[in-house]
Amino acid sequence: MSAEEQLAWFSDSGNQLSDALAANTRELMGLKAMIQRLGEGQKEVIRTLNLAAETGLPTPDLVSTSVFTRRDNFDLVTRSLAPSLVLLFHRLICFDLPERGVGRLRSSEVWLGNADGVRADHAQPPPASEVPSLLEAICENWRDNFKRLEGSSAKIRRLAIAKFHAAFLVTHPFLDGNGRVARAILMQQCLDLFGRADMSLMEKGARYYAALSQADKGDASALASLLEPVVAT
User: Fold this and answer.
1) Which of the following is catalytic: 90, 122, 165, 172?
2) Architecture of 67-231 per CATH?
C-alpha cells in the first residue's frame, strides 16, 4: 500500500470513527433526555400522591371517565339544586358504601390530614351541626344565580361551577363519597350550562389538588380553568 493509499485509508477510518462517535453522542443525549423526562414524571407522581394524601384521594367511578351530552329539552336538573337532590346523588352513586351512611349527612366530626397523618393546614370541614345549613346555603346560592349564569360568559359559568365544587368539598357533607358526589354534581352543572361534560378530560392529578387548595383560599380561577376542556365543544 502506497503512502497515498495509507493516508486515504487512515483519513476514511477517521471519518467513520468520527461519525460513529457523533451517532453515539446523539443516542446518549437522547437517553439522557428520556431519563430526565422519567424523573420529572416521577416527581409529578410523588407530588400528586402527597397532595392527594392531604385532600383525600378520589374513589374511581364511571362519572369521572365518561362523556355526557345533553340532548333533551326537559327542565335543567341543577336549576332546582337542593340538599334533597344532593342526598339522591349520594344514594345513586355511593350504593357500595355501608347502608347506615348512604344518603345521610354526617353527624360526626371529621378532619383532613396530610401525608404524615397529622391535621393539614388547608381548610378543614366545619362541625357536623353546621353541615345542613351550609349545604342549604351553597345550593340556594347556586339556584339564585342560575338564571343569571345562563346568560353569562363561559368564563363566568366555569368560575361559578368551580366555586360550588370547592365549597361542597370543604363542607364535606358525608362521611364518605364526597368526591364522587362532587364530581357528579359538577358533571350535571356542566351539562346544564354548557350542554356537554367530558369528564375524562377533567384533571385529576397534582394540578387539580393545587387548584382546589387555591380555591379554599378564595381564588377558584385555576380550578375554573381546568373545566375548559371538560365543556369544550
Assistant:
1) 172
2) Orthogonal Bundle (1.10)
Please say if 172 is a catalytic residue.
yes
User: Do the annotations mark residue 118 as ligand-binding?
Assistant: no
CA-based nearest residue to 171, from 208, 141, 126, 138: 126
| Grid cell for residue 202 | 377533567
**206 — phi, psi (to 5°)?**
-60, -35
* Residue 176 annotated in ligand binding: yes
3-class secondary-structure state, position 2: coil
- The tens digit of pLDDT for each residue in 99-132 reads 888 999 999 999 876 656 667 666 789 999 999 9
Using CA atoms, how far apart are residues 39 and 21, in angstroms rounded to an integer? 27
Annotated ligand binding at 181? The verdict is: yes
Q: Known binder of ligand: residue 41? A: no
67 pairs with which residues across the strands? 198
Give the number of other Cβ atoms within 10 Å of residue 195's Cβ: 13
Cβ-based burial of 50 (10 A; exposed 0-12, middle 13-18, buried ≥19): middle
Which residue positions in the chain have pLDDT lower than 50?
9, 45, 48-49, 52-58
Q: How does pLDDT run across 136-162, given as a tens digit for each residue?
A: 999 999 999 999 999 999 999 999 999
